[in-house]
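Researcher: Let's do a round of design. I'm pasting the structure tokens now; please hold your answer until I've finished.
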């Protein structure tokens, strides 16, 4: 059963008039919900466990290109709020080629400004794994 986030004044008054309990759940701040979602959606992955195409993309990033798609290297907005909140321009996205796909596919590397802050997503930004370059 889903618990309501808040009760209206009328519901509280009705509960008090009939002597029933009135409970009010605290509403979480939107930023808290985003950080909880971010913590739950960002995992980690060993570099050696990435698909070979992700290795190719990371090599291209390290070399500064050239990249296969014009969108590669553009600012990633983090609209989904899955990655840790940063200022605009902090993250950039790059395509990880998907064999057999007729378009860019769903796989991406998103880089942060910190050294070796590379995130891999195989599901078009629904979840991310921070790449561990040491394994």
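Researcher: That's everything. Go ahead.
Model: Designed sequence:
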């Amino acid at each position: 059963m889903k618990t309501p986030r808040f009760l209206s004044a009328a519901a509280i008054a009705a509960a008090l008039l009939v002597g029933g309990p009135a409970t009010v759940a605290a509403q979480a701040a939107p930023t808290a919900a985003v950080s909880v979602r971010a913590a739950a959606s960002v995992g980690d992955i060993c570099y050696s466990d990435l698909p070979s195409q992700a290795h190719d993309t990371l090599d291209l990033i390290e070399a500064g290109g050239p990249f296969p798609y014009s969108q590669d290297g553009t600012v990633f907005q983090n609209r989904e709020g899955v990655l840790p909140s940063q200022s605009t321009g902090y993250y950039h996205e790059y395509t990880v080629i998907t064999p057999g796909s007729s378009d860019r596919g769903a796989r991406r590397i998103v880089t942060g400004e910190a050294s070796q802050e590379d995130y891999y997503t195989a599901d078009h930004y629904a979840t991310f794994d921070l790449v561990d370059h040491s394994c």
